[in-house]
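haha ok so turns out i had the wrong file open the whole time. this is the CORRECT one, sorry everyone. sequence first:
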Amino acid sequence: MIIEQTFLSERGRKRTRGVRVDLDEVRRGLGLPGVADRGDWERVRTLLLEAVGESQFEIWLAPLELIAIDTSGALVVAAPAATWSWVRDRFGRLLTRCSQQLSRELRLADEPERRALGRQDERPALAAPTTRINQQEVS
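then structure:
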């Protein structure tokens, strides 16, 4: 698979380039979360909710999902692709702080990890259109 990587050139300009990524290799570095991992993730979510309040939590942090555990035991969390960089920049330190309160490491999954685990686009599928019938009794 080829992903687009953003980098700074030698002159400090932001550039993009295609980078080949072996998704099987990415998968080998990730394991499935166990019961204890999911429990820790739920406790982290509770701490996040307490820290930012219900409104911000529901908008930005509720969509985060525990998808894997890496080789070091860190919780690997996926954010929707559309908000990944915002969540990383705005809430990255808070995510780290809350997970460290539980003596766990936590990091956001990067694009190859999301794709390797089938999380290319986390937006919910559009619901099938419903037909509303307005019935009136005619006498």
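The radius of gyration is 20 Å.
again sry for the mixup
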